[in-house]
Each structure stands twice: as C-alpha cells, then as structure tokens.
Amino acid sequence: MISRRALLRLPAGLALTGLGLGAYSVVIEPNFMLDVTRYRITPKSWPRNLALRVAVITDIHACEPWMPPARIRRIAELANALSPDIVVLLGDFSAGTHIVTGPVMPEQWAEALSVLKAPLGVHAVLGNHDWWHGPLPSDAPDGAEGARRALRHMGARVYENEALRLTKNGQPFWLLGLGDQMADYMGKRLGWRGHDDLGATLAAVTDDAPAILMAHEPFVFHRVPDRIALTLSGHTHGGQVNLPFVGPIAAELRYKTTHIYGHHVEGDRHLVISGGLGESILPVRFMRPPEIVEVIVESADVPSLALAAPPI
Description:
By secondary structure, this protein is an alpha/beta fold. It folds into 2 domains: 1-32; 34-308, Metallo-dependent phosphatases (Purple Acid Phosphatase, chain A, domain 2), CATH 3.60.21. It has helices at 4-32, 69-81, 106-113, 128-132, 145-153, 198-203, 249-255; strands spanning 35-41, 52-57, 63-64, 86-89, 102-103, 122-124, 157-158, 162-168, 171-177, 184-185, 192-193, 211-214, 230-233, 262-266, 269-273, 291-297. The strands form 4 sheets. The chain has a 6-stranded mixed sheet with strand order 1-16-2-4-6-7, with helices on one face. A 6-stranded mixed sheet has the order 8-9-12-13-15-14. The protein starts with a helix and ends in a 15-residue tail after the last strand. The model is unreliable at 6-18 (pLDDT under 50).
C-alpha cells in the first residue's frame, strides 16, 4: 500500500526522470557518444578473391553547436583508423534542424572531411537536405551546388545516377551512386519528386563484375535488381528516437516501412542502413547513438576479413 507521502513524491520523481531522459537525449547521446557499427556481408554471388572494407559516413547535418567542424574532423579521423579500402559519404551534409546557433558552411565541413584517406578513394552522393536548402534550413536552396562543389574540392567523387568501375588486387567491381529520391517538394498532393534514375545508373554498368549501390534514402531498395549485391543508405537516422521494446515506431509509421536501420536481406540482395551522425527536426537522439558504419563485403567461402579488423 502506497503511503500519502510516497504518493505526493511520485509526480516529482516522474518529472526528474523526464528531465534526466531529456538531458540525456539532447546532450549526452547525440553529442558525446559515437559508435563504430560493423557488418559482414557475404552475398552468394560475391567473388572469392575480392574482400572490401567500406567506411560509411552519412547524415552529418553540419551546424553549430551540434556538429561543428572539429567534431566532423574527429569523425573522419576515426573512419581512417578503420583502414578502409574505400569511404562512402551518403549525403545530408547540410543542417537538419532550425535549433542552431549558427551555420557550418560547406567549405568548413568539406575541409574537416578532407582528411579522409582510402586506397580506392572517397565517393559521395547527395541527400535531400542538400537539395532542400543551403547550410541551414532557413537558407534558400541552391540546387545542391554548394554541397556538390565542396565535395569535389575536397577530392570526393560525386555520383548522380552514375557508376564507376574500380579494382582491388586486380579484381573489378562497380560502385554506383543514385540521385536523391526526395530532391524537390511538389506540394501536398504530389509529394516528393526525386532526381534519381535507377535505370540510367544500372545502364552505366557494362560487365558482370559485382556491384554496390549508394542511395541516400533506402526506399529504392525494393526496385533494386539482383544484379546489385549491396545497397548502402542513410536518411532515416535509424529512427533517431527509439522507444524501449518497440523500437523506431515513429519512423516506421512516417516512412511506411520497417527498413529503418541495420542489415536487411531479400533474396541475395543486401541493404545496410546507417543510423548516421547528426539529427533532423530536433537535436535529439535516444537509443540510437551517432555511428560510423564499417561494412566488410566478402565471400562466405574464405577466411573473414573481419578477423583482421583494426582496433579502435
């Protein structure tokens, strides 16, 4: 039986708990936590003599005070410590929330990312926020030219419905990059119009070497053919706010899909969705810390490259 004193204390206890969780989700998790999330992907069609270590950075949402240049540089340096064969940047470099103290200009975040190093280079696609507005959500859109120019200046290759044939140890593979699927808002009735052209992107592939697709939003995955062994995406922030026992239910309802986070397999097609690094709408994360993703793609028939994963 609860005493009268305990009953009176209950609202205060609940209020303090709420304040503690709020402080954690606004201050601690989004700003002081950073995970390295690792996946080993073994498509049945993947060649035995090709093993790739891919570092995935996405949804930076550069802005003050949440994602300043110094923090972006630390993220890039941690990605370098993974010793990746290739680095992919999956879009949304611009801020995603109005609750900021100032912008981080494209030249600033690009300079911070310019320390990224990988034998097979740094490769990027654009995200919806790069199209929707400038460095801040209150800034006028520029056709993503600011982000595009900054990425090229830092040495990244920018893909917009394009494909590039690469080789590692003499073994070829294709890297494809899709234009953004939500680039233009056409009004409440028509919704979003993308700049993506999956058919043209696939048509750029001219042989049967294995292929990896970069797509900012994961929504295209249901249309990706078996020809593509792995699709890498961001955008959803892994739900950004996840509730105990039920997970990213708000994101699932919003996007009308359960493909919100992590590794998904349909047939022999694999999808990895990163939880990303920054935030949109509100500068809040709960039960989905910022993350760099490491994906090892290799044949299941050979000793795993993951056994040689560098310590962090």
